[in-house]
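Deliverable D4.2, example record:
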Amino acid sequence: MADSDTVRGSRDGGSDEDKPKRTSLVTFYRQVVAELRKVVWPTQEQLVTYFFVVMVFVVVMMALISALDLGFGRLAFAVFTGNAEQ
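Output generated by the structure prediction step:
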């Protein structure tokens, strides 16, 4: 079973020795640069391919939602006015 102080944290604030040290700005910057060097950046061909895949997906979703909106709008109009043709 977990210690209750571990789960909830100490309520008395603890001593300064228990608190983790803050990272300096220079160290933080070096770590960010090191992580960015690990990133595998896409090639231009991959980027263009991903762009078109996303655009096609967005257009398909827009068409689907527009069709559903139009259909539900006409259904609501028919239910509340009693006219099926409008």
